[in-house]
Amino acid sequence: MPSLFPTKGLLGDHFSHQIPHAKSAADFSSPQKHSRFLAWSAVDDMKTRAGGLSSEAQKEISKASSVAQAKTGQIELYSLQFYAACTFGGLIACGITHTAVTPLDLVKCRRQVDSKMYKGNFEAWGKIGRAEGIRGIFTGWAPTFFGYSAQGAFKYGGYDFFKKFYSDLAGEEAAYRYKTGLYLTASASAEVIADVALCPFEAVKVRMQTTIPPFASGTFSGISSIMSKEGTAGLYKGLYPLWGRQIPYTMMKFASFETIVEAIYGYMPKKKSEYGKGVQTGVSFVGGYAAGILCAIVSHPADVMVSKLNANRQPGEAFGSAMGRIYKDIGFTGLWNGLVIRIFMIGTLTSFQWGIYDSFKVFMGFPTTGGAAPPPKQTANL
């Protein structure tokens, strides 16, 4: 007859010190099972892999740089080849960056022309996207790319040329003593030429972005449309306000960049020449953003006027009359429409432009911009 009470063996099976379903030490020592509990090491592993990729990328860039320098030969500083290379670097820096921020520029221009059109950037992009798709958000990208590539080429290449030209005229000691005036004069000279190249494309861009639907389907159809109605003068009717916007903007951009970069190196423990390529381009990026904020504020009223003139100036209307009429309509506060978005846009643009431009100079074996050293006579007295 079976017992009504559990046996000793049965009690031992159910109430022993062993934990049911517990894993043995061998289970935890198994690499495959133990790996389940090493999730916390994933971040460290990613950092290690990223560091390895960064090192490999730097090696590849250095290798490509060596190949490029071998093909072009050792380019002498301030030679024609040097200025040609700087011109190409400026083309890349400005063409790519301005095209990338076309959506910001589109909303900025439309709000400058009609401040009530959109309440904010995200509302604007939402409305444009629903009506025209992603293509609509990038309205005006082609004239932006062509125009600012041309402008960047003459701006950056011209700046390096005029800085050397005026420095030689002044002499080494005077150039260092009055270096801020040298930066201002060189940048203004370069920008006068650069804006002549930019102006026709800027006229097309602004009209494409401020007319709904756009008045032309492309850059060159837009140029043809303007010339057929207004002649060549129609492409350059915004040149004076463009100079009024861009020359102060560029003077502030280059002079403040040079000053900020020099100040950064002044606070750092070593000389500029003792730092590697990564540090120098990083300094260029930081200095570029700070300079961009300053030049956006200085040039904003003229930027608003350029948008208004290209959109609303009547054929045959005198420049002064058009400006007076527009100012009467918008007032002083209207000249600051879209300032916040422009500060963000220009700060970002300027930092990436200087980063790209100086990275290209390093790639070609040239020194980066900024951080001017004292002339040899002064250095010897330190």
Explained architecture:
This protein has about 375 residues and is mostly helical. It has 16 helices and no strands. α10 (about 180-210) packs across α12 (about 240-265), α12 runs antiparallel to α13 and α13 packs across α14 (about 320-335). The longest helix has about 35 residues, at about 275-310. The radius of gyration is 30 Å and the shape is globular.
Descriptive labels:
382 residues, disordered C terminus, single chain, mainly alpha
Short description:
The chain is mostly helical and 382 residues long. Helices cover 76% and strands 0% of the residues. It contains 16 helices and no strands.
Please outline the helices and strands.
Elements lengths: L7 H7 L10 H5 L1 H4 L7 H31 L7 H21 L1 H12 L7 H17 L3 H30 L1 H6 L1 H32 L8 H12 L8 H29 L9 H36 L6 H16 L4 H25 L12 H6 L1
Helix pairs in contact: 5-8, 5-15, 6-7, 8-10, 10-11, 10-12, 12-13, 13-14, 13-15
User: Radius of gyration in whole Å, from Cα?
Assistant: 30 Å
Low-confidence stretches: 19-29, 32-40, 378-382
Taken as a percent bin, the fraction of beta residues is under 5%
Main β sheet profile: none
Mean of residue pLDDT? 82
Helix/strand class: mainly alpha
SSE pattern, N- to C-terminal: HHHHHHHHHHHHHHHH
